[in-house]
Amino acid sequence: MITPRTPPSRERVAHHYDELDPLYRRLWGEHLHHGLWRSGRESPASATLRLLDEVAARAALRPGMAVCDVGAGYGATARYLAQRLGAHVTALTLSSAQAAYARAQPLASGAPPPRYLLRDWLDNGLPDAAFDAVLALESTEHMPLAPCLREVYRVLKPGGRFVACVWLAREGAGALEVRALLEPICREGRLVGLCSLREYGAALERAGFAVKRADDVSPLVRRTWGVVLGRLAWGLLTRGELWAYLLGAGHLERPFGVTVLRLWLAYRTGALRYGIFSAVRP
């Protein structure tokens, strides 16, 4: 597992998303996750929703199910699942900026309103065996994995499904890849660490899950960072406030502007991988 020298605190993770809130919404919109390009001809918006459809299918979601979204960002996944599938979604985030945005968004008539919680997943206060499915789209990397998965197991009903989309490191990543790409991505992205596909699957099994699928889909998602890099470049050409932010001495998260380039390079070299895991609580 690739780890930063100093693991981020929950406060630092929350600050990362609060401070970068305007930048994230400009570069990604309200969906803070990769897109899935199966044909290669999808628009970024279509690819983003395609990933959500893949997650919903792997979780075997049906109307009326109780679903928990761990690290829910701006609540876009929760709203999509409520509107498309009639799911009853509880969505958790550490970021006060994200929670405020999510609570302000309208919902289609007749869809079950998501419940948005400003809460730490490791101290979530949710009842045991309360959910038919738990989803984590690129959020478990911000937490120590063992206690994170224990909480997922605890709140799932027996037979319930856990689907996680996860940033991963290449198995046996080289020293230069770690030093120049993966460790800085952890540090600047406020990640606790990057597992390999095998390590993450083993962690699920140690937590008591039966792993049903573990797929490396890196070639299908890496176009995301070309899109983001292009949007960042255009923003730097057209919006002076972006330069003001990136050059501002008081902004703790400004190195993330460089991290976008690291992420693009890490996918191009294969050092950074992307996995989708499906597991069941027996």
UniProtKB/TrEMBL annotation:
All copies of domain Methyltransferase type, residue ranges: 69-163
Keyword match Lipid metabolism: no
GO molecular function: S-adenosylmethionine-dependent methyltransferase activity
Gene3D superfamilies: Vaccinia Virus protein VP39
Keywords, comma-separated and alphabetical: Methyltransferase, Transferase
InterPro entries per the UniProt record, alphabetical: Erg6_SMT_methyltransf, Methyltransf_11, SAM-dependent_MTases_sf
Protein name: Methyltransferase type 11
